[in-house]
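Case 436 in the screening queue. Each case pairs one protein sequence with one candidate compound; here the compound is iron/sulfur cluster. For every case the pipeline is the same: read the inputs, emit a complex structure as tokens, and attach any notable structural observations.

Predict complex for case 436.
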Amino acid sequence: MTFGCQMNEHDSERLAGMLEEMGYEPSGDPQDADVVVLNTCTVRETAETRVYGRLGELKRLKAGRPGMVIGVCGCMPQREGAANEVRRRAPHVDLVFGTHNLDEFPTLLREVIEERRPVVAVSGEEGEIVEGLPRRPGDDLKAWVTITHGCDNYCSYCIVPYVRGRERSRRPEAVVGEVESLVAAGCREVTLLGQNVNSYGRDFDEAAGGAGFARLLRRVNDIDGLWRVRYMTSHPRDFGLEVIEAIASCGKVCEHVHLPVQSGSDAILELMNRGYTAARYRDVVARVRQAVPGVAVTTDIIVGFPGETEADFRQTLDLVSDVRFDAAFTFVYSPRAGTPAAAFPEQVAEEVKKERIARLIALQNGITREENQKELGRSVEVLVEGASPKNPGKAEGRTRTNKLVLFAGSQGDRGKLVNVRVVRAGTWALHGEVIP
Ligand code: SAH
Ligand code: SF4
Ligand code: F3S
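Case 436 output:
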């Protein structure tokens, strides 16, 4: 069970691959699983609450099936004190391991099973990048490919650098090699993953500066048989001209940039240690839009950061109104112990945070709907993922701009690239007809 971001989705594929090598098979239902692993997130308090909720359900299951092994891994145990907390609050958990111990999973699992005792393995230090771990792709058509591990940015609210370690880039040959083998196995779309893709390569090639990622994009774009290249997450401070040129000129690189702004107030951005101003952010978006016609821009926004006044928050609303994002992920600030912002005075009251996020969501939902309506009558290219799980008789897929499109079709359409004329547009999806 995976919680959290694409990094965890991807790590879970590796865990599943290791289990398959050990002779296990995937089970759709924890009810009849011998091993259940929760790959956890700790970016916000709510992420941990969800994990404990699941652990509560599993406790009941395990009471009826004592042989079941329950593991907890990922970012949560890596947070200081959290591994012990799991042992205390959920003594039915047999195995706890951190993000830096991912490759030890088979050994740790054997230890639990053979020695019938709980095992905890949480290293404080990230090791060298381990290449060549098996993976069981969740999806053969689309795949995540890590380009950098960890993060060095230390945004003042964020726990990721503490639980994922220093930023380490994979060698370009390793990335290209992995994409080539995915494509040989039928993959058509890759998403290059890093907490800040724009700093790719800095650790081994300082001279490349911001150009390391641009170069990598060009190399991946040249891989035959691949149709689409995505990447996330971009950082406004490091989003340079070389990258804009690369996305504009590489045909497979999709017209979508996920560019978290976090706040529209310079005072708050400064306290967040983001390294850019709202004006710089607007400028980056303007340049990208000029270079890449039709590009979709999405973002992440935090409300209620310590010290955020009503005036600061209005600047966020103004930025949202002006930039007109295609979509935004909005979060209420959650203090994470050990991060600088958690100790800032002037924490914002919960009611104020709730009221602000409701205003922000209402504004953004209106904009998302209006932006989607601009697609009416247009023809969009859709990579079909198969039957829509929630809409009988429909197939679904995504545009190059990452919008969900539904149309009459079936699972048999999976993997096709079709052109769809948009006839209806809501906030969450576009509806259309395939153009023969
Ligand atoms: N590396 C990416 C995103 C990492 S976490 C980036 O730099 O944008 C995903 C999002 O979670 C962040 O963009 C931020 O908006 C949100 N987030 C991180 N820490 C948070 C916290 N303590 N409280 C609320 N939201 C947080
Ligand atoms: Fe967290 Fe900032 Fe790193 Fe993103 S760039 S993971 S928000 S520290
Ligand atoms: Fe991702 Fe959550 Fe870890 S956002 S990096 S899974 S703390």
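Case 436 observations:
- The mean pLDDT is 94.
- The chain has four domains: 6-121, 137-254, 260-374, 379-434.
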